[in-house]
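Sequence, please.
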C-alpha cells in the first residue's frame, strides 16, 4: 500500500483525480490538498469575467470527487515540502506524509509593483478573484463613469480588457474608459499578424492600448509608469505575467530559472524521484515550456501513469510535449483570434471553437461529480 499526495487540484491532476477510485481499489491511500473545494479552469476565466460563463460552468468539485471515490480532501494551502522526511507542511500547521507526491500548485501574478496597503486592485489569478472583480466592475459602473486600467500587455491582459468591455456593454450601465498599460510592445512574443488582429478588435471598441512605458507602481486610484506619467484608475487589474509557486524554492528543492520545480522527462524531480509535478509550477528541463494550459492537459495521462508506476515499482513513461498547439484568445463579445501554425483567424468562429473545446473539457470531468 502506498500513500499518494496530490498537492493542488489543477489541470495536470484531472486524470489522477478521476482515477482516485482505481488507486484506492489497488490498496493505495490518496490525499488531495487544495486551497478551495473547487478548481476553476483558467482557460474560461476571462469568459466568466465577461459574463459568458457562470462560476458553475468553469469549476470542478475537487472535494466532492475526491471524497466520493474514497480519497481524503484537505482544504488547506501547501507552505513547505520536507523531501527528507517525505512530508508536506500546510498553512494550518498540519503535516501530511507521503510515499509519492505530485505537485500541481499552479502560478500566480506577482504583486511586487503594488504599493503597500493599496486597494481596488485585482490579479487575474487565482481565477476565483475574477468573480469578485466582476461584481466590483458592475457595482462601480452603476454609479459613475469609471476608469479601469489593466497593467500588462500579453494575452491575459488582452482577454481581460475585451471581456471587461463585454461585461460593461451588456450591463446597460455607463461604459467605463478601459486603458491597457502594455509596456513598450503589445503582445511582443506573438507574430505581427496576430498582434494586428487583436489590436484591431480591442481598439475598435475604444480600448486604449498604451505602449509608451512599463508600469512602475500600482497604488490605490492610480497606475504610475516608468516615464513618470500617472493614469487615474477606479479599478486596476494586474496581468503582468505569472510565476510558479514559491513553495519549491522555500523547500530547498531543485528549481529552474523561473523558480518552478525542476523535473526530468518523466515529470519527476531529478533529486527526489518520489516527487512529481505538472502544469505551470514546473520547469520541464528537457524542453522549457510556455505557461499555457495545453501542456498541463497533455501531461495528465503521463503524470497519472507515472504516479501509479512509482507507487507500484514499475517503469516510468517519458512525457512528449508534442508540437505546435492551437491558441485561441477570447476577446469578449463572443469573438476571438485563433493561431495554429500559419493559420490565423479572427471573429466569431474562433470563439465558437474555443467555447466548444473548453465546454467539452469541463463536461468530461464534471460528469465525475454525478
Amino acid at each position: 500500500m502506498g500513500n499518494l499526495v496530490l498537492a493542488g487540484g489543477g489541470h495536470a491532476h484531472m486524470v489522477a483525480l478521476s482515477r482516485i477510485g482505481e488507486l484506492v481499489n489497488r490498496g493505495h491511500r490518496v490525499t488531495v490538498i487544495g486551497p478551495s473545494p473547487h478548481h476553476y479552469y483558467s482557460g474560461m476565466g476571462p469568459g466568466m469575467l465577461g459574463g459568458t460563463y457562470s462560476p458553475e460552468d468553469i469549476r470542478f468539485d475537487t472535494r466532492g470527487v475526491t471524497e466520493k471515490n474514497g480519497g481524503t480532501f484537505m482544504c488547506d494551502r501547501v507552505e513547505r515540502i520536507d523531501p527528507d522526511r517525505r512530508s508536506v507542511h500546510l498553512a494550518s500547521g498540519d503535516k501530511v506524509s507521503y510515499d509519492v507526491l505530485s505537485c500541481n500548485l499552479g502560478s500566480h501574478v506577482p504583486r511586487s509593483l503594488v504599493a503597500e496597503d493599496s486597494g481596488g486592485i485585482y490579479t487575474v489569478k487565482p481565477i476565483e478573484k475574477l468573480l469578485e472583480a466582476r461584481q466590483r466592475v458592475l457595482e462601480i459602473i452603476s454609479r459613475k463613469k469609471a476608469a479601469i486600467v489593466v497593467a500588462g500587455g500579453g494575452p491575459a491582459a488582452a482577454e481581460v480588457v475585451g471581456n471587461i468591455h463585454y461585461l460593461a456593454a451588456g450591463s446597460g450601465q455607463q461604459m467605463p474608459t478601459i486603458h491597457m498599460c502594455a509596456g513598450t510592445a503589445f503582445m511582443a512574443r506573438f507574430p505581427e499578424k496576430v498582434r494586428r488582429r487583436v489590436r484591431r478588435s480591442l481598439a475598435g471598441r475604444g480600448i486604449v492600448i498604451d505602449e509608451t512605458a512599463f508600469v512602475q507602481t500600482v497604488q490605490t486610484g492610480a497606475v504610475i509608469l516608468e516615464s513618470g506619467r500617472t493614469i487615474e484608475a477606479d479599478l486596476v487589474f494586474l496581468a503582468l505575467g505569472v510565476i510558479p509557486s514559491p513553495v519549491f524554492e522555500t523547500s530547498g528543492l531543485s528549481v529552474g530559472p523561473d523558480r518552478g520545480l525542476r523535473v526530468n522527462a518523466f515529470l519527476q524531480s531529478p533529486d527526489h524521484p518520489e516527487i512529481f509535478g505538472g502544469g505551470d509550477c514546473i520547469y520541464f528541463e528537457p524542453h522549457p515550456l510556455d505557461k499555457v494550459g495545453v501542456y498541463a492537459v497533455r501531461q495528465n495521462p503521463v503524470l497519472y501513469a507515472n504516479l501509479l508506476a512509482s507507487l507500484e515499482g514499475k517503469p516510468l513513461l517519458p512525457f512528449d510535449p508534442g508540437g505546435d498547439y492551437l491558441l485561441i484568445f477570447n476577446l469578449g463579445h463572443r469573438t476571438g483570434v485563433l493561431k495554429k501554425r500559419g493559420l490565423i483567424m479572427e471573429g466569431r468562429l474562433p470563439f465558437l471553437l474555443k467555447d466548444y473545446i473548453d465546454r467539452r473539457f469541463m463536461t468530461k470531468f464534471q460528469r465525475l461529480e454525478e
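The mean pLDDT is 95.
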